[in-house]
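Is iron/sulfur cluster placement plausible here? Inputs below.
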Amino acid sequence: MTNKSTKSVYLETFGCQMNELDSELVAGSLGALGYQFTSQADQADIVLYNTCSVRERAEQKVWSRLGEMKVRKNNQPDLVVGVLGCMAERDGKDLIARMPVVDLMCGPAELDKLPELLDNAVRTKSSLAVNDPEIAIRRSAKQVALQGNASRRSSTLAAAGDSLESLDLGRMISPVDFDGRRSAYVRITRGCNKFCTYCVVPHTRGAEIHRPPQHIIDEIKALADTGIIEITLLGQTVNHYRFEHDSAVTLDGIVQPQKGRTYKGSHNRDAFAGANTTTFADLLYRIHEEVPQIKRLRFLTSYPRDFGDDVLQVIRDCPRICRFIHVPAQTGSNRMLKMMNRGHNIEEYDEFIGRCNEFLHQPEIGRPLMLGGDIIVGFPTETEEDHELTKQLLIRSRYKNCFIFKYSPRPGTVSYDKIPDDIPDAVKKRRNNELLMIQTDISDSIAQDQIGGEFDIFVEGLSRHEHKKRGTDVKPGSGMVGITIGGAEPQAQIAVLDAEIQGPTVQLSGRTDGDLIVFFDVPAVGLQSPNDYIGKIVRAKINAADKLTLAGELV
Ligand code: SAH
Ligand code: SF4
Ligand code: F3S
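Reply from A.M.:
I modeled the complex. Tokens:
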């Protein structure tokens, strides 16, 4: 147990990479204030869940955790339980009404206020004697910071009052203990303005705000100084990144005209260019040139519209920018796309995929382009014909991997309010499985295509197989934050690597720049310890492929 003055925190993260980053930043800011982190929920004084609201299932997991905390609080009344993130924002105070065990709620756009909320929550609990008559009232005093109605301020006003920037910048003042990590996320854009009809994100994360490019670059430099060599830039629609340097807001909130900004057309080169604007292409180029210590530059997620040739040219011409584009289509049917309010049609999507391949698919120099996607099945009124169109889309797009989700109606969204969820679950399931089977075959065939090729592999850690062998399998999302990247194995150092090893080799796992997973063996004992490979880039030749993973040997 910890001593009285040091509170220990258990922080568990659900949801997307944006949440993983938020958790890391929160851990950094609380750590700087003296809180200590534990991976054992049952030993913590404070239990925080950083939650996701994107599908109902994501919320159910948190409800069940909160149920467990209710039981525990009977024995440990001083326990502080907090719900952070998208579910806090979406449910609002209803969540506390339903789950009084929750002491603290903090939306994703308010996380800079968390230290203060937490301090209040802890002091409320611990300063009171057990017999204090006020105890019941005080103990039920809740600490809440949600955006609520402020969430839909215009982007410009939101940017003017963007106190959250301090959370991201805090990383440079009190960097988290990277402990062997070589990979990190960096936010470029907060929020989303697209309002796809099924999606909670614009409601939970608020208006789109682009971070100043200099802040992003300084942050990446600081991360590079700690040994990070892989950066993934995060935003809901990263290619919409666009920072207007002369943007000015008058006291009454009126935006001043942009000096020198030229808008030259829809999706072609220099669409947003202008002397005073940093576009996504500009940003990628600047990072690549100004921080060469970053050996791998990635970005998530791309939006299939407004993705100019300028970005594709930068990716093609900059060797350290990865050839992987995650660009969800959601469906292959124009009718569905319209109902989803995606703002693009399938012809435009296909055109974009074609353009990506034209610019970036270069297997002859060992740099094939890999694409990733997301699909929603069973959106209201989806017919077998719509479903057939989605199958065709999968076959045409040839994603390396594609996440397929069953439509989940989310309160507060347009589709929840206006369109009944009329596709039975059994039909959603069947369609989901059909798409999965098609995708598995495609992934398999892409993997087979790589046999004989040579790739740079960024080594992440022990392979799953090796973990199993050692009984050290670590569940993603459990305990301390920021150590899993996209669900990959933690990149911490291998703990036991000598006499206890079974066998003469150790199997490690890494990724190509196209994000393909590669397993390869290294000698357990030798000139280089297996630990020495982790976090480095090695060259390997692929000699086998099994479904989604490749097996290689060092060359
Ligand atoms: N900004 C990204 C996606 C963020 S949400 C983009 O636009 O591509 C991640 C994925 O969750 C989405 O791509 C979508 O496929 C899925 N998703 C979002 N809301 C959903 C819902 N209500 N039901 C099922 N899947 C959903
Ligand atoms: Fe959601 Fe659409 Fe925004 Fe993606 S672009 S976060 S799916 S609203
Ligand atoms: Fe979930 Fe919020 Fe991310 S809803 S997917 S945690 S932006």
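Short version: Residues 128 and 330 are 52 Å apart (CA to CA).
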